[in-house]
Amino acid sequence: MAKVYYENNADLSVLDDKKVGIIGFGSQGHAHALNLHESGVDVSVGLYPGSKSWDAVKEAGLAVGTVDEVAQTCDVIMILVPDQIQFQVYKEHIEPHLESGKTLMFAHGFNIHFDAINPPPNIDVSMIAPKGPGHLVRRVFQEGGGVPALVAIHQDASESALAVALAYGKGLGATKAGILETTFREETETDLFGEQAVLCGGIAEMAKAGFEVLIEAGYQPESAYYETFHEIKLIVDLMYEGGLAAMFSSVSDTAEYGAYTRGPRIITSETKDEMRKILAEVQEGKFAREWLLENQVGQPHFRALRRITAEHPVEEVGSEVRSMMAWLNQK
Predict the structure, then answer these.
(1) Which pTM value belongs to this model?
(2) Are 25 and 58 in contact (CB under 8 A)?
(3) Summary mean pLDDT of the chain
(4) How far apart are CA 141 and CA 272, in angstroms?
(5) How far is Cα 205 from Cα 198, in angstroms, rounded to an integer?
(6) What are phi and psi of 198, to 5 degrees?
(7) ∠ CA 227-231-232 to the nearest 5 degrees?
(8) Neighbouring-strand partners of residue 64
(9) I want to staple 69 with a disulfide (CB 3.0 to 4.6 A). Which of 65, 223, 295, 300 is the partner?
(10) Cα separation of 316 and 319, whole Å?
């Protein structure tokens, strides 16, 4: 069984004499910075000059400076910019300021695991990865709770890397829910596989395929959208809250029987074989090399795929159907 750390396993005072720098103020960055600040941690946010987030950081009552300034003055540096630009930000603005005794942190292991970033051996390298988007990390903290997180140690030069990482996680509120011990390899490979094969790739492609099949059979696009896109949230929420048992207990017996008898015809042994190939590509670094190269040449394939998806008929139909849902329009 995996080891899980809770409130009594972490000491926030470990950060009392340390300055923590958050690089980036996006979804995760704003949540980390604000949660830590409200937990009493000395926090600064590092941004590139002219960033549109500069004023937002100031308005939130946080110290802000360039990435170089924050990396130079802070003892703990958490990198929360997108994977594809982390290497450049690290190489140009963080690495020159990494002195012995500092801690470099990540919320995703991609660049460390695939050797895009190779920190010097005299610093600690660790990870705290909340298992939820930044807005959820922030909201649950404000409500007095915390979102679960993962912790991993890549380098422990000081022999106190875990204590610092857990203190950081406690400042986020994560120890109230539990921080699961893992490795950079496990976090990175399972995260990429889950995104590609199930959560983002698998679900999206299955929903699009179902929509297309119904349209080809002559059904109204609006009806097709309701049955293949709209109701995904209803089902996933039930699974999220109580697993398969809660979901099946909430749908009709007809739906449950259909799931048992027809679902395996969609997710077949061939589907699992393809999933294994995707996992192998992740493990071998093939996907990482492909994605990094795509960014080096300006993302032409990625941009084309994004445009094709935006032009899919389900996006137009979905926009029309969602306009009927007042509770969505209020967000």
Answers:
(1) 0.92
(2) no
(3) 96
(4) 38
(5) 10
(6) -125, -70
(7) 110
(8) 45
(9) 65
(10) 5
Tokens of 2: 């995996």
Tokens of 113: 């695991």
- Of 41, 53, 101, 60, nearest to 81 by C-alpha is 53
> Which residues, listed in sequence order, are joined to residue 79 by a DSSP beta bridge?
23, 106
Angstrom distance (rounded) from CA 59 to CA 66:
17
- pLDDT, one tens digit per residue, over 266-282 is 999 999 999 999 999 99
Q: What distance in Å separates the CA atoms of residue 36 and residue 65, rounded to the nearest whole number?
A: 17
* Backbone φ, ψ for residue 281 (5° rounding): -65, -35
> Around Cβ 115, how many Cβ atoms within 10 Å?
9
Residue at token pair 């910075």: 33
pLDDT tens readout for residues 53-100: 999 999 999 999 999 999 999 999 999 999 999 999 999 999 999 999
CA distance 192 to 194: 5
DSSP 219: -
What confidence tens digit (pLDDT) does each residue in 279-293 have?
A: 999 999 999 999 999
CA-based R_g, the chain, Å:
22
Q: Is 41 helix (H, G, I), strand (E, B) or coil?
A: coil
Tell me the pLDDT tens digit for each residue of 19-35.
Answer: 999 999 999 999 999 99
CA distance 315 to 54: 34
Q: How far apart are CA 200 and CA 291, in angstroms?
A: 16
The answer to whether 108 is a known catalytic residue is yes
Distance between CA atoms of 10 and 8, rounded to whole angstroms? 6
